[in-house]
Specification:
single chain; 296 residues; alpha+beta; Cyclophilin; 8-stranded antiparallel β-sheet; 20% strand; disordered C terminus
């Protein structure tokens, strides 16, 4: 299976391109009536399922994560409605991860909320990894434009082991906690495929960010968080040049991840490509940043 994370690619590249059947009337030059959205969605979901099935049959590598043989299509026509951080109640409490990424000669920030109520063991494992510094200096080892970006493989600290990136971290597994769906910006743990991992246990380190609403991933991976700021950074990473294993050619790595507990709404302060960006909570800012916020 592909390295942890998402949809399956075989170890040696793409092997399948699913197609939607073309009605006979179309071939004869007659345009059929446009199908309704539910019909389109059923066709798309079935095509996606065929991808997963074929990839699972072909999987024989030691890599972890969903395996796809071609970049998947978005299959959810009605995206799940997410709670706007601006509308968080004054007394609501949120556990946030603030991830700094070395990218393009600069330090970019991605912030995501964690869901310990829905994935307690997964979040606890992630917090343990952060506390021990396990993610510092690890590279983004998979980037598929419009689909996902993935990181967290301990092997990616070694540039000389690049050909094995995506296969590490199997020494620690976490029980499946499959409850939340893959909305755009969902954060989930990678894992090996069903053929060798029928209980869908997560790899103890690798995690990925979904860049679209992918219903075909639902029920297969443990979603434990949701991006609330910096999604545009992840989308830029997904567009970087990659090698045959979908690994970015230029090294992009995690500088650090900090955990902060935030109470109340999180207010908009900047504008991103998707017109939804949020300021860091004061507790996640540096002392200078907190001072400037008070002054300005």
């Amino acid at each position: 299976m592909l390295s942890l994370g998402l949809i399956a690619f075989t170890a040696h590249g793409q092997t399948l391109s699913p197609t939607v059947p073309v009605p006979a009337d179309t071939a004869a030059g007659v345009q059929p009536a446009a199908p309704d959205l539910p019909s389109i969605e059923r066709i798309a979901n079935e095509a996606q399922r065929q991808i997963f099935d074929a990839a699972d049959r072909a999987a024989g590598s030691s890599t972890s994560g969903p395996q796809v043989t071609s970049t998947p299509k978005k299959t959810s026509f009605s995206a799940p409605k997410l709670e706007d951080p601006k509308s968080w109640k004054k007394d609501s409490r949120h556990k946030l991860a603030v991830m700094e990424v070395k990218f393009g000669g600069a330090i970019e920030t991605v912030m995501f909320e964690l869901y310990p109520q829905d994935a307690p063991q997964t979040v606890s494992n992630f917090l343990d990894n952060v506390e021990t510094g396990a993610y510092k200096g690890l590279a983004f080892h998979r980037a598929i434009e419009g689909f996902i970006v993935q990181t967290g493989d301990p092997l990616s600290s070694d540039e000389g082991a690049r050909d094995r990136w995506g296969t590490g971290g199997d020494g620690k597994n976490v029980p499946a906690e499959i409850k939340r769906k893959h909305s755009k910006g969902a954060v989930a743990m990678g894992r090996k495929g069903d053929k060798v991992n029928p209980s869908k246990q997560s790899n103890g380190y690798q995690f990925y960010f979904a860049l679209g609403h992918y219903g075909s991933l639902d029920g297969n991976y443990s979603v434990f968080g949701q991006v609330i700021s910096g999604l545009e950074v992840l989308e830029r990473i997904s567009k970087m040049p990659v090698d045959s294993n979908d690994c970015p050619i230029a090294r992009i790595e995690i500088k650090d991840i900090k955990i902060t507990d935030h109470t109340g709404p999180l207010y908009v302060s900047e504008t991103s490509e998707d017109d939804k960006t949020y300021t860091k909570p004061a507790s996640a800012l540096s002392p200078v940043g907190r001072f400037l916020r008070r002054v300005w």
